[in-house]
Design brief:
By secondary structure, the protein is α+β, with helices and mostly antiparallel strands. Helix content is 28%, strand content 22%. It comes from Thalassiosira oceanica (Marine diatom).
Length: 190
């Protein structure tokens, strides 16, 4: 978060006041079926991105493990209107003609995306579980709901952890110093 492109992206998009919204691990067990294509948050008229999500591969993600498929540049109003089309014809045509990126990530690699981007996990045909550590930061400009419930323990969500506070504590932790925020959060979760 302090020195990586991940932290830089979130900082440049949302600033130091971005709040931690999600913190979890996404598991796809052997035999898991493909997800339907979806955005994590809807396109909200007049709003820019509300969440940026980072997936970090906890092992090499191979093609047979059901990697995430993203449809780049589908975080737009036009893409969401076509995608929400209930008749299906335009939606199917749109999906079939939109280029896709497959998330075959190496262990420790990260993928950062606007949560409005259409994506899905593919079927896990391997004999291993696929694990992605993930977190999302919420735009400080959004006062209400993101349209996506937080996947974070209530104690962490209620603590309103900002990017600025977290990076400051991580710098101190790296120096071997005690960390006020991390200590407070640990106390909340006991």
């Amino acid at each position: 978060m302090c020195k990586s492109p991940v932290g830089s992206i979130i900082l440049s998009e949302f600033g130091q006041s971005a709040t931690l919204h999600e913190l979890s691990c996404l598991m796809s067990d052997s035999g898991s079926q493909r997800q339907v294509i979806h955005p994590d948050t809807p396109f909200i008229e007049g709003k820019n991105a509300v969440l940026y999500t980072c997936f970090i591969a906890l092992q090499d993600i191979t093609l047979d493990m059901g990697p995430t498929t993203w449809l780049p540049r589908t975080n737009t109003k036009d893409a969401h209107e076509i995608f929400r089309d209930q008749s299906g014809a335009d939606k199917d045509d749109f999906i079939s003609k939109t280029p896709a990126v497959l998330g075959t990530l190496r262990k420790g690699s990260a993928a950062v995306f606007d949560s409005r981007t259409l994506h899905c996990g593919t079927a896990n045909r391997s004999d291993k579980s696929r694990a992605l550590f993930y977190f999302s930061f919420k735009s400080p400009k959004l006062a209400g709901s993101t349209g996506n419930p937080a996947s974070i323990r209530r104690e962490l969500g209620d603590a309103r952890v900002t990017l600025g506070d977290l990076t400051s504590d991580l710098v101190e932790l790296g120096k071997g110093n005690e960390c006020e925020l991390i200590g407070r959060l640990a106390g909340l979760m006991q």
